[in-house]
Specification:
heterotrimer, A mainly alpha (100), B mainly alpha (440), C mainly alpha (168), B: 440 residues, mainly alpha, C: 168 residues, 6 helices, 73% helix, globular
Chain lengths: 100, 440, 168
């Protein structure tokens, strides 16, 4: 029988890996993907608690999180594309000058 | 021995058996659909098609399969080996996985999921990765462009097709494929008569989703060589090929389940019996139809020029007689057997009818250019699908609240949607002419 | 119950291993494929928690939509030279320590609250239909967030189109 806290440990593991990915990688697209990973970890957490209480509130909130992630990924990738066209780089370290 | 087949064991064994049957029969069926396509294409172009291999070309798929299996397996030098190996695998796996929720008969279904329809849609949208990763892994410009175009087309038309499906889902009230067919049985009418425009939208969307003509720009020979399949040869190519035809059968299966009544016979709610027996009158239809085909074969047999062809025609006639016998014989067997055999017959008949439309459209319409394709998807089909959904929902609501007959309200809804469709088409025409004039 | 545990361990190991692989790949396309595997494993976890509608929404939207978008952009901005650069930035050690500290905080939070977690009250013989329940909640209590989410998507769509347009 899988208890709720095992789902919470899984969520914690994915969350930590996501945070490491966001803070240590240079490639902007990998940073975005790590953010998606963080959002997924939160979703697992929400759904685990929803299962524990027997309601669907957590699942509905998770649907909103997924919607939000879609919107954010779309805009973020649009920004990356626009930036790439200007500066020809995808590395966060090199995106440091606003204008020269 | 009887206690071996306990219900709990049968519940585990039966789905596995169905799955094995489907996976075993499918490649053969895909091969023969290719042969059927070549024969129908030839017939529409006033020629004969493959005639050499086997009598009337009936062994052509076997020859093709043997050739593909024995071809040299070439991997481009700078190709990403992992992705190159993975991509056709993903395509084929997703295409075959969708069969898990398809109801071929009242009991011939591997898994009756609560969310069966969404499961098939989800698995179809996962099949896009086979195309995109294949195009990327080939490390070739043509492949990449073809793959990206194909994926963009698939994503656009997937939305439109899904919206078309929802208009029929409103009438069904459930996502389980079995419940959808039973809803058509309960309401006594196939859903295509309530939402024909939804059927049309789904048909166009499904043709574009399977990369068939007239939407086959990504894989047309005169355009991008062979699109994402350019660098694949031999067995890997045949996997993509199998995935494409399996996808065709899946979309035909979805259309059949949602719009054409699934495994129900026409007029499924009329239970008039033959006098004196408990056999329903309309249940004799399949046997009579196949008997008619058999008699036609026997009629044509003496007219063939060559002796071997006379023999083959007679054999085909005999085969049809045997099938007709099975269909007639099952009338006297238990209801489960009757439902199973006849259900499978009607389902396959409707699927092949839908596929015939696929083949017909391939050889009738010229190919769409990519920008025309995207315009059609986003600026015509999606607004039309949304309007269709809204009108159908209003029609359903009116028929439930005010008690009008659903047939009447759905006819009103169809009229409104058609008016909007005319307006959209006219608007688009003006727009595209204006854009063409502007760009000159 | 045993099947539940086996499936949970399978999906969780798959998710964590794929996540680690994603964060460490040099090739961005490989990273995207590993994220896809992670997302599919997460969808499996949702199914184990009897959230079947969320499972299918995750597969259709996240894996079939968002990741396709990612892969498109990765292929459009393909840089071969990226394979020869450093992949981790200069502050990786401090960042790693900070991330682990954050993880430790959450670990402590879960540990202290662990006693008040309870197993789900008796699972009924016939599960209530999940899709219907989610639909009731979404169009009932959560109607306002639903509408706001649709406006959010509209704004994001317009924003993405504007960002990606070439300046004429």
């Amino acid at each position: 029988m899988v208890s709720v806290d095992q789902y919470l440990w899984l969520s914690l593991a994915l969350f930590t890996i996501g945070v490491i990915g966001v803070l240590t990688r240079r490639n902007v697209i990998i940073i975005l993907m790590s953010i998606e990973l963080i959002l997924n970890a939160v979703n697992i957490n929400l759904v685990a608690f929803s299962h524990m209480f027997g309601t669907v509130d957590g699942q509905v909130f998770a649907i909103f999180v997924i919607t939000d992630a879609a919107a954010e990924a779309a805009v973020g990738l649009g920004i990356i594309l626009a930036f790439f066209r200007n500066r020809e780089t995808l590395l966060a370290d090199e995106m440091d000058m606003l204008k020269w | 021995m009887g206690h071996l087949f306990t219900p709990s064991i049968m519940r585990l064994v039966l789905p596995v058996l169905y799955a094995v049957v489907i996976v075993a029969v499918l490649p053969l069926m895909a091969g023969y659909i290719v042969l059927m396509e070549r024969k129908v294409m030839a017939d529409m172009q006033a020629r004969l098609g493959p005639m050499r291999v086997g009598p009337h070309g009936l062994l052509q798929p076997i020859a093709d399969a043997v050739k593909l299996l024995l071809k040299e397996d070439i991997i481009p030098e700078k190709a990403d080996r992992l992705m190159f190996w993975l991509a056709p695998l993903v395509s084929v796996t997703m295409a075959l996985l969708a069969y898990a929720a398809l109801p071929i008969g009242p009991t011939f279904q591997i898994a009756d999921l609560n969310i069966g329809l969404l499961f098939i849609l989800a698995v179809s949208s996962l099949g896009i990765y086979g195309i995109v990763l294949g195009g990327w892994a080939s490390n070739s410009h043509y492949s990449l462009l073809g793959a990206l175009r194909s994926a963009a087309q698939l994503v656009s038309y997937e939305t439109a097709a899904g919206l078309g499906l929802i208009s029929a889902l409103l009438l069904a009230g459930s996502l389980s494929m079995r419940d959808i067919v039973m809803a058509q049985y309960d309401q006594g009418m196939w859903f295509i008569f309530y939402v024909p425009i939804g059927f049309f939208i789904y048909m166009v969307g499904s043709i574009a989703e399977t990369n068939r003509a007239p939407f086959d720009l990504p894989e047309a020979e005169s355009e991008l060589v062979a699109g994402y399949m350019t660098e694949y040869s031999g067995f890997r190519w045949s996997l993509y090929f199998l995935a494409e035809y399996a996808n065709m059968i899946i979309v035909a299966g979805i259309a059949t389940t949602l719009f054409l009544g699934g495994w129900l016979r026409p007029f499924a709610s009329y239970h008039d019996h033959m006098p004196g027996t408990s056999i329903e009158l309309l249940d004799a239809l399949p046997a009579l139809l196949v008997l008619g085909v058999a008699l036609y074969c026997f009629f044509l047999a003496p007219k063939q020029p060559v002796k071997i062809q006379k023999l083959v025609m007679a054999l085909v006639g005999g085969l049809c007689l045997a099938v007709s016998g099975v269909l007639a014989g099952s009338l006297f067997a238990s209801p489960a057997v009757l439902q199973g055999v006849h259900g499978a017959f009607w389902f396959m008949a409707k699927v092949f009818g839908y596929l015939y439309f696929f083949l017909w459209f391939r050889f009738t319409f010229p190919r769409y250019r990519f920008d025309q394709l995207m315009r059609l998807g986003w600026r015509f089909l999606i607004p039309l699908a949304l309007v269709n959904l809204i009108t159908m929902a209003i029609a359903l609501l009116i028929s439930r609240e005010w008690g009008w007959s659903l047939r009447l309200t759905s006819i009103l809804a169809i009229a409104v949607t058609l008016a909007v469709a005319m307006w959209l088409a006219k608007n688009d025409e003006v727009d595209s002419v204006v854009t063409a004039a502007e760009s000159e | 119950m045993v099947l539940n545990a086996i499936l949970f361990y399978f999906f969780s190991v798959l998710a964590v291993v794929s996540a680690i692989l994603m964060v460490t790949r040099r090739n961005v396309v490989h990273g995207a494929v590993y994220l896809i595997t992670t997302l599919l494993a997460t969808a499996g976890v949702f199914l184990l928690l009897q959230a079947e509608f969320l499972f299918i929404v995750q597969v259709i939207l996240y894996v079939g939509g968002i990741m396709v978008l990612f892969i498109f952009v990765i292929m459009l901005v393909n840089l071969d030279v990226s394979l020869l650069q450093y992949q981790f930035n200069r502050q990786r050690f401090v960042a790693g320590v900070l991330a682990l500290a954050l993880g430790a905080q959450i670990f402590l939070a879960i540990k202290t609250g662990q006693k008040s977690l309870f197993p789900p009250s008796r699972v009924p013989e016939v599960l209530p239909k999940n899709t219907e329940a989610v639909a009731d909640a979404l169009f009932g209590r959560f109607m306002l967030p639903f509408e706001i989410a649709s406006i959010l998507l509209l704004v994001a769509m317009i924003g993405a189109v504007v960002m990606a347009k070439r300046r004429a």
